[in-house]
Amino acid sequence: QVQLVESGGGLVQSGGSLRLSCTASGIRFSLISGGWYRQAPGKQRDLVAEIFSGGSTNYANSVKGRFTISRDSARNTVYLQMNSLKPEDTAVYYCRIFDYWGQGTQVTVSS
Predict the structure, then answer these.
(1) Do residues 95 and 7 lie in contact, with contact meaning Cβ atoms separated by under 8 Å?
(2) Phi/psi at 67 (nearest 5 deg)?
(3) Any idea what the Cα angle at residue 63 is, between residues 21 and 25, rounded to 5°?
């Protein structure tokens, strides 16, 4: 059974940083394609960043220049480095690797 486990969420002050990790178990990937999404209360789940098998990346306009997605295929892991965090970044963050989804991790940014 494939499972994605996320970690790294938490409470941080505005301007701070967090690094999210998402590790897959139960399956072996060669070149990971995946992404990070977020959902704030009362809002839809939106794409934050994605990375494709070839290594190219795509970011939501709201996080460009602040967030960086990366991967370690040998570790079956996708990362999201989040810098210069703002209160509006507060949400539950979900990872996706191919068609598999994590359970979500809460990120709260205080002003």
Answers:
(1) no
(2) -110, 150
(3) 20
Please identify which residue in the block is written with the tokens 């570790």: 75
Mean pLDDT in the chain?
A: 95
Name the CA dihedral angle for 20, 24, 29, 31, rounded to a multiple of 10 degrees.
-10
Quick: pLDDT tens for 2-47: 999 999 999 999 999 999 999 999 888 888 899 999 999 999 999 9
Mean pLDDT score, 45-66: 97
Residue bearing tokens 């996080």: 63
Phi and psi at residue 84, in whole multiples of 5°?
Answer: 50, 50
Enumerate residues 6+ apart whose C-beta is below 8 A from 51: 32, 33, 34, 35, 57, 69, 70, 71, 78
